[in-house]
User: Fold this.
Amino acid sequence: MSDSAWARYRRHRWLPQATVALLLVALTAGFVLVRGGQRDRHNEDALARACGGALPREDAAKLLADDAWWTLRTGPAPRALVSCTLGGDGKGDPWFTVTAEPVLDPPLKGVRVEHVVNRTPYEKMPDWAEEHERADELVTVPCPNGLPGYARPVTSFRVHASTDSPAIERVGALVAAVAEDVRTSRHCGGTSVGETDVQTVSPSPQDDEPDTSQAECAWFRPALLGTALKGAEQSAHGATHAWARACSTTLSKPGGGVTVSSASWWGEVLPEVRTEYGRELAQAGHGAPPTTRRKNHELAVWAEGRCAGGRTLHRVSLEGADRELLLARADSLLARYLDASGDCHDTKVLGKVWG
Assistant:
């Protein structure tokens, strides 16, 4: 009976082929289900580890492709507090990157007058420090208790995120979650961070900075040097920063000229200024005028006081070939500069020093 059934089965026109096809479909479906389960477990594990586990699972998953194996790249970037990138391993699969980093002042080129009058007195920042300007979403979070481990006080950090996912509206939730995790884990204090605090990054304006040289140099007039430089060509440039302001004015005419510079420093840079100008400050009021004539002389006069509630150092210098002119005008120029400096008191003149 069975042999007859098997014979009929083998002689059937399409039943053997259908059976083989069904077996292949079942095997393929089983393989797909197993691989799908492995992929889901892999993706869940990657998502749980991304950014220290701070990411909201649903929002993060909506940014990525369900049918892709997600690859996690994690670990802090240079100077970053947290950094993670998660995305599919196939071409065209969406991804996202979230980074938390301290808000650091760029290093100064220096604190001398020639650095202060420069509109860009800072060293060029590395590319990674400007990544937040190219991000999609950003939040800057105050950290009143400070972040430890930095040479200067760091009282804020930023979190930014980028993605190529069409579900970009989900990115804000990731930024807020990581920001709140950093705020609490680093004991920053302050108020909690929510999604409403996150902002869309706008391109930085490319407008030229206004020329403020007239503001820093408004205190000086060529007539303050007498009639010797009457009719001289004048050029001036200056700048104001959060820690200093300065101006440099050059008067030129055939046979000679004079450069007058003024500067004031306050705040955290004062120790660096005292170090950079240590020789001048140590000799202020004690050095004798040079006994030999040189092609060029420099005379600086220093003062200290309190301006806008903080300790401030002031310096006015004259540079030129006429030694007598420099000596005769230095004190009056300093007095003029201090009068124009605004809300300053407890001022003490430290004295003159020849360069």
User: Anything to note?
Assistant: The chain has nine helices and twelve strands. The first helix runs from residue 2 to 11.
